[in-house]
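Below sits our specimen:

——
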Amino acid sequence: MRTSDTNVSEGAEFTNNLLVAKFAPCQNGKNGIMKIKTSCKAGFTLVEIMIVVAIIGLLAGMAVYNYYSARSQAQMNTCINNLRQINGAKQQWAMEQGKMISDTPFDSDIQPYLGHGANGSLTSVVCPLNPTGGFDGSYTIGSMGIPPQCNVGGVGGTKYDANYPHVLN
């Protein structure tokens, strides 16, 4: 009971006297095989770009934190090494001069023992947190029975801040 095949379009057929469309998105006219459409768009989606930017931001944040943490640790280590040098210079001065534990050396007394010789200067022996303060502004030598102490303190928020200055243990 089919009417005429001449008026039927290529993508339709008759079933039970009803015109039914074939559900093939794209057909090759020769052999009836479905074409697979592939997207050839090049580039990234906005979500992908936002994820990459977020990851880079997290990595940068961690790197900046680690940089400042390493910098403050290096400054503290430099200061403590200066305190060790001052303490060693005090001990050498006391042994060579025959001093007692209650004696207190002056800056000029320990200057030759800090590796600068008799003509050296104490300008290079300063706390890195106060480079313009000079030796006297950075360190207290103290008597022979007391270890030298940093007057500057350290990085705020750590145990080496102004309430707990750098101390030689």
Observations:
- The longest strand covers residues 12-15.
- Strands lie at 12-15, 18-21, 139-140, 149-150.
- Residues 24 and 157 are 70 Å apart (CA to CA).
- Residues 155-164 have pLDDT under 50 and may be disordered.
